[in-house]
Amino acid sequence: MAIPEPLAITLAMIAQGARAAEDDWWIIGSAAVALHGAFVTPLKDVDVMMSYRDAERFLTDVNGDRIVPEPSALFQSDIFGVWTAPPIPVEIFGGFRLACNEGWQSIGFTTRLAMAVDGGQIYIPGIDDLRGLLRSFGRPKDLERLRLIEA
Questions:
Q1: Which of 6, 13, 93, 134 is least surrounded by Cβ atoms within 10 Å, i.e. has the fewest?
Q2: How far apart are CA 134 and CA 35, in angstroms?
Q3: Between the CA atoms of 52, 54, 56 and 57, what dihedral angle is there, to the nearest 10 degrees?
Q4: Cβ-contact 145, 30 below 8 angstroms
Q5: Does residue 1 register a pLDDT over 70?
Q6: More confidently predicted of 25 and 3
Q7: Strand partners, 83
Q8: What is the pLDDT of residue 9?
Q9: Are 55 and 96 in contact (CB under 8 A)?
Q10: pLDDT at 14 > cutoff 90
Q11: What is the pLDDT of residue 69?
């Protein structure tokens, strides 16, 4: 699969920015769907899920902007920020949680697939973990992404 140049540059910049990460982290959302081989367009951002400490360090190291997002009934993060230097903006979620029947649940995966990019490694959840994440989000755009990777 050929990765479009703006995404390839963005992924390489993420790999460099995350090199000091101490905990597992993943690229999720539409970029992860694209990296699993589904055609996703347009890719308006790249979502990165990290621990709180790694997200804080990442945003500091890359001079990203910490943002207090509007409250959401579906998602929470202990820290959230946006990095706009790459060709595709990067959204960083530290301590990411999803609302469920039992309350707020931390999101985690059982798989972590490494992908080599210019300048380092990036990580995405395995296909089954990604499918589960998209189903749990349940929004129309996530269900469309699920359909794309199942096609």
A1: 6
A2: 15
A3: 160
A4: yes
A5: no
A6: 25
A7: 90
A8: 96
A9: no
A10: yes
A11: 81
Q: Which of 60-69, 96-105, 106-115 has the lowest mean pLDDT?
A: 96-105
Q: Which amino acid is at 78?
A: D
Instruction: State pTM to two decimals.
Output: 0.93
Domain ranges of the chain: 5-150
Q: CA 17, CA 117: separation in Å to the nearest integer?
A: 13
Q: Is residue 42 reached through a cis peptide bond, with omega within 30 degrees of 0 on the bond before it?
A: yes
CA 14 to chain centre: 11
Q: How is 67-132 classified by DSSP, letter by letter?
A: --PPP-SSEE-SEEEEE-SSSS-EEEEES-EEEETTEEEE---S--EEEEETTEEEEE--HHHHHH
Taking alpha carbons only, the member of 65, 42, 52 closest to residue 22 is 52
Region of residue 93 (phi > 0: left; psi between -120 and 50: alpha; otherwise: beta)? beta
What is the mean pLDDT of the segment spanning 135-142?
Answer: 89
Question: Span 44-55, mean pLDDT?
Answer: 97
